[in-house]
Design brief:
297 residues; alpha+beta; 3-stranded antiparallel sheet; 10 helices; 11 strands; globular
Length: 297
């Protein structure tokens, strides 16, 4: 088993999606720590489905940025819109449209630039006031002071605090409030929850197929390939597909590996590298756009 230091070190260097590229200098001089960095993100991004709470109506053109994958592309678009420093909060109508995944990968990139190990986690949040666990991404970062990984939700700002059921520290999200996809899978498989309660309630969708897809996205994120919430590849089942015994066994194994990614670091890396059903290919299916797309521009 690798040491905690070697596993954490894997999440210290920029990855394919979190590398800032030519925009690296923009990440210098930002507030230290996850709380301040989340505040920076709040001033740069607006969630496509919550824009109305800020008095913003998004056009289709403004929504297109939700399909940007790499942080470098996000930063490039931000600079095209407003070349000011990242610490200057844009007015809501002038922010880049994204979603929970974009808030998360930006926070991960900023934390890594400050020398803090961080990684994106894909799963389900139970604090959005719907009585279900909603499809969601958060940032997991290494808290050196306590020697442990913590979950942080870099999306929720003061406006959203009035909308959602948050009664906890957003820089230390309880593990029963946000379930990584593997924990959701295991909970349902053990009979502790109804899989239909895991998905997106406003779309009236959920079930094992959604949990399995997020589990595969979480595995990819732990391999530093943080994909869009609607990117589809490999072993992800379709909504109307019966998940066979072989795939159930695969997702059971992945749920175990992702529960403690550091303890399972070697096995998780080997599974991702060795199984083409898990690895992100050069081209994925964008389910929202109903087309195949290259992962990188």
């Amino acid at each position: 088993m690798p040491s905690q230091e070697s596993a954490a070190g894997h999440y210290l260097e920029p990855g394919v999606m979190t590398a800032p590229g030519e925009y690296g200098p923009l990440l210098a001089g930002l507030p230290r720590g996850i709380a301040g960095l989340a505040g920076v993100g709040h001033g740069l991004l607006i969630h496509e489905h919550i824009a109305g709470a800020y008095g913003v109506t998004l056009t289709d053109e403004r929504r297109a940025s939700v399909h940007l994958r790499p942080v470098a592309a996000l930063l490039g678009q931000l600079m095209t819109m407003d070349g000011g420093p990242l610490t200057t909060a844009r007015e809501p109508a002038a922010r880049l449209t994204g979603n929970c995944r974009h808030f998360t990968v930006l926070a991960v990139a900023m934390l890594r630039a400050q020398g803090t190990p961080a990684r994106a986690r894909c799963g389900f949040g139970g604090y959005f006031g719907t009585g279900t666990f909603e499809d969601h991404w958060v940032c997991e970062y290494w808290d050196e002071a306590v020697g442990a990984w913590k979950l942080a939700d870099p999306q929720i700002d003061d406006v959203q605090l009035k909308l959602f059921d948050v009664d906890f520290d957003l820089t230390d999200v309880p593990r029963d409030k946000f379930l990584v996809a593997g924990d959701a899978w295991r909970l349902c498989r053990d009979g502790g929850a109804d899989p239909a309660r895991f998905g997106l309630s406003f779309m009236n969708e959920g079930g094992y197929w959604w949990i399995a897809a997020n589990l595969l996205r979480d595995v990819a994120a732990l391999a530093n390939m943080e994909m869009l919430p609607w990117d589809v590849w490999g072993a992800m089942p379709a909504p109307d597909e019966t998940i066979g015994d072989d795939l159930i066994a695969l997702f059971d194994r992945l749920a175990g590996l992702t529960r403690d990614p550091d303890a399972a670091f070697t096995g998780l890396a080997a599974a991702y590298a060795g199984d083409p059903r898990l690895r992100v290919p050069a081209t994925v299916y964008n389910a929202l756009r109903n087309r195949q797309e290259p992962v990188l521009p």
